[in-house]
Specification:
The chain is α/β, with parallel strands linked by helices. Helix content is 37%, strand content 21%. The protein folds into two domains: 130 residues, ATPase, nucleotide binding domain (Nucleotidyltransferase, domain 5, 2-Layer Sandwich); 160 residues, 2-Layer Sandwich (Nucleotidyltransferase, domain 5), CATH 3.30.420. β9 and β10 form a beta hairpin. α1 packs across α2.
Length: 307
């Protein structure tokens, strides 16, 4: 990660999700040194638990003066407040950045989780060597981020890249409605009784999760393969619009759904090729992310080292 050589000696980033906190520690070259993760639970507010987690991170990683925090929500670029969060609406009601700096005595860099993951992949993952990149994350929600000339493009207020809110048909159905992890499970359950030959039929319908669908598909289950293929088609439909509009150099696709690897990626590429302007598609490389579940924490750690 040569672009990280002039950063601080130690860089720390935290990713906040609805269910857990994860922190990473990087050296001056951006190499991953350690990862620490804790579940969220108990009677304390999520914010109180986050402060406690950062204090625990200090004990594990040693002293540091800066930290990056990646959150699932829209972060206003000027005010540094969380303007909207589907999964953690509590963040909208507080001065998240200001109160965190006051409680931790650290310099805080706050960033949307998709933006952070995009930057992590750009510097040290599948985006290495590019200057312009679009990042899509497929997981509990669908997110996106843009990097132009090596920098995150935030838009007018900080809300650019909301890939999951792209409408994919004339009825206004959004990509997130049909391609998130929850939607894959929902679609699988809705067709559950139509294919008795599927290995999934041996499971309790209400207990089927994304991991079950992916595992079945990887083992050759035609029904599970179909569910993931359709997900890829939905994503590829939306992605074609990005390619046509931006003539982007590279697209990196990450998130939990990409544990299915080519079962989803190949479908994305086929559909994007069908709907994209051929010369623009030919100039775009579509690849899987390399940093996996650490992408957002790594990216925000790198960003914290720049300020």
């Amino acid at each position: 990660m040569s672009e990280a050589t002039n950063r601080a000696e130690k860089m720390v980033g935290v990713e906040v999700s609805k269910l857990w906190f994860k922190s990473v520690c990087l050296d001056a070259d951006g190499k991953l040194i350690d990862v620490y993760r804790n579940p969220i639970g108990g009677d304390q507010t999520l914010f109180s638990q986050l402060i406690q987690f950062i204090n625990e991170t200090k004990k594990r990683f040693g002293d540091f003066q800066k930290i990056g925090v990646a959150v699932p929500g829209l972060v206003h670029h000027e005010t540094k407040r969380v303007a909207f969060s589907t999964f953690i609406p509590e963040h909208e009601t507080i001065d998240f950045h200001g109160e965190m700096e006051a409680a931790t005595a650290l310099k805080i860099t706050i960033e949307n989780d998709a933006n952070a993951a995009a930057y992590g992949e750009f510097v040290g993952g599948a985006g290495r060597g590019s200057r312009n990149l679009f990042y899509a994350t497929l997981g509990a929600g669908i997110g996106g981020a843009l990097i132009f000339d090596g920098k995150i493009w935030h838009g007018a207020s900080g809300f650019a890249g909301e890939f999951g809110h792209i409408a994919i048909n004339s009825d206004g159905v959004k990509l997130e409605d049909v391609a998130s992890a929850a939607s894959i499970v929902r679609r699988t359950r809705s067709r559950f009784h139509q294919d008795g030959t599927s290995s999934l039929s041996s499971l309790d319908e209400e207990e089927i999760g994304l991991k079950d669908v992916i595992k079945a598909a990887q083992e050759g289950d035609d029904f599970a393969v179909l569910m993931l293929d359709r997900t890829g088609k939905y994503v590829g439909t939306a992605l074609a619009g990005v390619i046509n509009l931006l003539n982007i150099e590279k697209v990196v696709v990450g998130g939990g759904i990409m544990q299915a690897e080519n079962l989803v990626l190949d479908s994305i590429i086929r559909r994007a090729r069908e709907l994209s302007f051929a010369p623009s598609f030919a100039a775009t490389q579509i690849v899987s992310g390399e940093l996996g579940g650490n992408a957002a924490a790594i990216g925000v750690a790198l960003l914290s080292g720049e300020f």
